[in-house]
Amino acid sequence: MNRIEIRDESCKGCQYCLIFCPRELLQIDKSRINVLGYNPARFVDNPEKPCLGCALCAEICPDALIEVYRKKKGAVKANVRTPNT
Amino acid sequence: MALTKVFTRPDSLRDINFHFCPGCHHGTAHRLICEAIDYYGIRERTIGIPGVGCGVFLYNYFDLDVCEAPHGRAPAVATGFKRVLPQNIIFTYQGDGDLGSIGMSEVIHTANRGENITVFFINNSVYGMTGGQMAPTTLLGQRTTTTPYGRDFRTEGYPIRMAEMLAPLEGVAFAARVSLHTPTQVKKARKAVLRALDIQIKNMGFSFVEFLCACPTNWGLSPRQCIEKIDGEMLQSFPLGTYKNRQDS
Amino acid sequence: MSERQILKGCVALAEGAIAAGYRFYFGYPITPQNDIPEYLSARLPQVGGVFIQAESEVASINMLLGAAAAGARAMTSSSGPGISLMQEGLSYMAGSELPGLVVNITRIGPGLGGIAASQGDYRQATRGGGHGDYHLIVLAPNSVQEMYDLTIKAFYLADKYRNPAMILADAILGQMKEPIFLNPPPLVLPEKPWALTGARGKKAQLIKSLYLADGEMEQHNWHLYEKYRRLEREEVLVETDLQEKMDVLLVSFGSCSRMVQSALDLARSRGIRVGFLRPISLYPFPQQAVREVSREVGKVLVVEMNTGQMWDDVRLSLYPGCRARLLARPGGGIPAPGQILAEIENLVKAGDGIDESVHQA
Ligand SMILES: Cc1ncc(C[n+]2csc(CCOP(=O)(O)OP(=O)(O)O)c2C)c(N)n1
Ligand code: SF4
Ligand code: SF4
Ligand code: SF4
Ligand SMILES: [Mg+2]
User: Fold this and answer.
1) Do chains C and B touch (3 or more CB pairs under 8 A)?
2) Which of C20, C53, C300 is nearest to C158 (CA)?
């Protein structure tokens, strides 16, 4: 399954990732306050509509806190590239 | 099944929390620039020159040589660097107060000399660092701490469009305005950043990328509302696009 | 290998800079220093250097800051109004501990003032000029030869102390032609491990003047303080011409000191026993020398082309109880040797004791 990892201790709860996830797999964790004093975002996969590995959440996170893992086949274009020099 | 990491922080971006407010797009701009630096493998010959504004702490985050510049003067400092070190990649990172107001003269003349540097311009329509005063890019009607009744063109003039202003100069090889408020726009912004550095690597002249950014704190809006504001009002005053892209020779 | 030539002061200065290994010039036109950029725009390309006519003095000083941070020996030149515009950049350079040379071929101020020679920028030059707790290293030539020699020296001191330096000359010294020896010392460029050239094979480095953490700025200022005290101990430059049992000590710097030297010859030919002290480094000021010599002499005449600026430094340095006078010409004119002689004779006749009067020339 595709999945993401959020470095939630650094999350500022801006909610951008929530807004843009096409599968609505992100939510704000009201039960927890991180060291920065925010309710962090949380990834909850949905077996019915699983994570696409589309990386839209990672792309929009202004604090660069999200890593995206995809099943190898047909990996989408994302920001990890081999340097060309 | 084996999973492949397809998205992560770029190597040039240090593992340190940004000091930026929640939803501030300075962080996104930082990441895109670092990604492009990694992409071209130029970290070890790149020197960053932040202006004075919320971006001044760039040196905490970018794992490369960084020199501070007085408010607005980063393009002149960059000129000094580039002339001494023509093989290095030199970029400035400036806010709209820094570049469009106090540093207008430096950026125009650096562009006009065709100085082979890259300028990254953070247009958040306010002076973020000093508490949300009017910037040259403040939208008409926008309330700031020094335009409490909203910016009025009769007394405060109009928002300045830097990308359009610089593009016609002969020395400018690349000028684009991008936005960071949706993932699609971020992807387009990445392309512009890559091209701007490509232009410099190829010694083609001055390159310029203007980013439309939110300053939730000084706009007095939630990050969610900021997206709406950029998508509506801000895009109207500041149309996105590539205003100049000199072809490789 | 030394060559005797007849050169203009501004040209000698430019050649001194080249002899010091400098290859980067940034500047904006202003009279009376235009000979420097005009000459260098032709000369620098011949030695593989870079000449940029900047859009303003604000840009010039910041280009200098960038070139200095990249490790190069670089320079800008200007006069009064242009130097005023550079003060923010100079403060940043001092705060970031960047070397570099700024040449001030002074004109009269305040304001647009006039283009004749003046020493009215002494205070701005020696006190720092911009915001914050810093000094420039300030050297004041009084001949075409020194325009050359002190320029080389200024680059050397700037690098040694990682602090901007200034040559404070004026329109007379800039325009005057004299025979000089071009005696370039062997060029040894110091290592600059702090310079930014890219983080290749080493940790990323940072040049800045912003210190926000608790106590950091205090510590930084004490560090700068130590540097300035060391300059004051080790780098004072002063010329003296003293006699036994002097009646009067003359103190003067720069172009004005040449008139004072003529007056000194006149006075001595009349049997007055006169000593002469010329600060060459205006910062660090030769406090100790002034104190010691004034103790011997008791009467001091300061001659300046302003209303009394070095005068303050002399009075701070005088041995207690000395009688001091100022002969001042702030209008662009030069005090004539005859006038100075008259003042010397007055002072010889005056009794002992404290008299810090100011006399218009
Ligand atoms: C000469 C000078 N004047 C004023 C300031 C104060 N100042 C610091 S940052 C800033 C404006 C920053 O606004 P902007 O460039 O838009 O950057 P932002 O914080 O919005 O990213 C000002 C006016 C200064 N540092 N130096
Ligand atoms: S990768 Fe795409 S689907 Fe998966 S959480 Fe992120 S935005 Fe949602
Ligand atoms: S976008 Fe980033 S900072 Fe904002 S809520 Fe999501 S993970 Fe947190
Ligand atoms: S004040 Fe504005 S520009 Fe500065 S960090 Fe906060 S949101 Fe960003
Ligand atoms: Mg701004």
Assistant:
1) yes
2) C20
